[in-house]
Design a protein that fits this description.
20% of the residues lie in helices and 26% in strands. With 200 residues, it is α+β, with helices and mostly antiparallel strands. It has a domain at 17-155: 4-Layer Sandwich (Deoxyribonuclease I, Chain A). The longest helix has 19 residues, at 47-65. 26% of the residues are buried. InterPro entries: Endo/exonu/phosph_ase_sf, Endo/exonuclease/phosphatase.
Length: 200
């Protein structure tokens, strides 16, 4: 909405955008069933403004994100959780935002994502949910800006499907059916045959 963030598909034809949207400080696009959010929030704004931005972002993720979400961007927020030396109030709010949505932190290592002169910090953060993020790293290539490129591999696993052995006749396909069963008889069977599950 404010044109401060964008998501772009560079390999057209290989990936298709099925839906997109934007808000103040963020833009999103659904690709291969995953909602990818790009965010930017400028420094020098009040904590109340930052909190309002996170509220809007949270509402968008809840409404449009679906099960598979990646949220990344320059939040200008510091937190020891993603490698900062100290945690700022913005960083605490951002961490709480991620926790409230069940998002997982993808950042790894302590390489700064931003550097200007002698100053450096980690203010570019990536979160994800229900997808697999591999090889998250800060790249060494010159980006022609104060920020380094962030690279990662996103793997979106398909929903598990029932596997049927087509070599067997249909009447031998394993499965449950309660059609024609007496409900009380079935309940008695379940009660007398507890399911033992071992975890570990």
């Amino acid at each position: 909405r404010d044109r401060k963030a964008a998501v772009e598909i560079t390999q057209r034809g290989k990936y298709v955008c099925s839906e997109k949207g934007s808000g103040t400080g963020f833009a999103w696009m659904r690709v291969e069933g995953t909602a990818i959010y790009s965010c930017y929030w400028r420094p020098g704004t009040s904590l109340a403004e930052f909190s309002s931005f996170l509220d809007d972002l949270s509402e968008s993720v809840r409404l449009f994100g679906g099960d598979k979400v990646v949220v990344c961007g320059d939040f200008n927020a510091w937190n020891v959780e993603w490698g900062s030396r100290v945690s700022s109030r913005r960083g605490t709010l951002l961490s709480d935002f991620a926790w409230s949505l069940g998002l997982v932190l993808a950042n790894r290592g302590s390489s700064p994502t931003f550097s200007r002169g002698e100053a450096s910090s980690i203010i570019d953060v990536t979160f994800f949910k229900s997808v697999e993020i591999r090889d998250w790293r800060v790249m060494e290539e010159d980006s022609l800006s104060d920020h380094r490129y962030i690279s990662f591999v996103m793997v979106s696993h398909p929903e598990p499907q029932a596997v049927v052995d087509l070599a067997l006749p249909a009447r031998f396909h394993p499965g449950w059916s309660v059609k024609g069963r007496d409900p009380l008889e079935f309940a008695g069977y379940v009660e007398s045959h507890p399911l033992n599950i071992e975890c570990g």
